[in-house]
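Our preliminary data section would be incomplete without showing what the modeling component actually yields. Below, a chain of 370 amino acids is followed by its predicted structure, encoded as tokens that our downstream tools consume directly.
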Amino acid sequence: MNLMGIIFANIYDSSLGELTNKRTMASLPYGGRYRQIDFALSNMTACGIRHIGIISRYNYQSLMNHIGSGEEWDLEMQEGGLEFLTPYASGTSSSFKGKLDALNSAMDFLEFGEEEYVILADPGMVYNIDLKAVVEAHIASGKDITVVTKPGVANGKKRLDMAITVKDGAITDMAVDYEAPEGYLASIGLFVISKDLLIHEVKESVARNLYRFERDFVLRQYLAGNLSVNIYTYDGIVLFTESTEEYYKANLATIDPDIRKGLFRGAHPIYTKVRDQVPSYYGEGCNLEDCTLADGCMLEGTVRNSVLFRHVNVGAGAVIEDSVIMNDTVVGENAYLKCVILDKDVVVSPGARLVGTPTNPVILKRGETV
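Predicted structure:
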């Protein structure tokens, strides 16, 4: 298929607090071994896309280190292949105003090549989707843009970037930044649009001080009758990570075999940076219950309903429950952790006690000692 891809790496950084102080949302560790951008990259490359731009405003060093040359996704870091687009480092804008502004600053990348369609993706959701089917549905619809949606997300509390209702195949309501009640479909930040239309609309919108993709382009032009919108409903697993609470719950969700299967054995494999390590060591006093574990761990204590990334050390007598523990963290002997998120390289002293709640987990920043 004649496609190119754009990934917005920083979209929800501000809603994740300390977790994204020094990294983009796209580079957030996920599920024991992965980063959130792995899903968008794997979805796109499985569809045959080899021209992908990653738009990032700041804190993108971690993301660049993770992606490297792009060989895990069969991509090459070169003009026309995989490119990091950092328009706010030297472009015309000094601050982020919205996706249209970001796309306008990356216009050279958009205009390069002869692709006919563009797929736009956010890193604030993880899913494993067959983009070929999405693009085929878009072409068959004859509409200007396709919005990929997920049912069952709207609950009257979660604010959705875009919420839509459909009856007999026709859109009956569309709203943005809306705490939609049950019955609405939630956009998952995934769009298909022709490149020529996107370039035209970006230039026209920015020239009129309009910068937000969903509100100022899709909703505005749809209500004016200038844009036809196709809705593609995806019934597979979609986990939102737009807040600290959602990120915490989305990680723990990988413990569920059905969710894990839907994410990692869905339409195609999910690839990530290869970091082979020795197998995890399970000590004589180790006790594990319902966990997702990566390789390279040293386990002497008890771990229940938790996600442990690579090279985590759990001392004898320590108890970890309902927690997300990232790479190279050390949990000392007889420590007790419940409902916590420990970033990389954290040291928990012997006997320490950290207790949060599922809606407000305790977070320790990278490299902290407690």
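Confidence is low (pLDDT under 50) at residues 89-94. The longest strand covers residues 185-194. Preliminary results of this kind motivate Aim 1 of the renewal.
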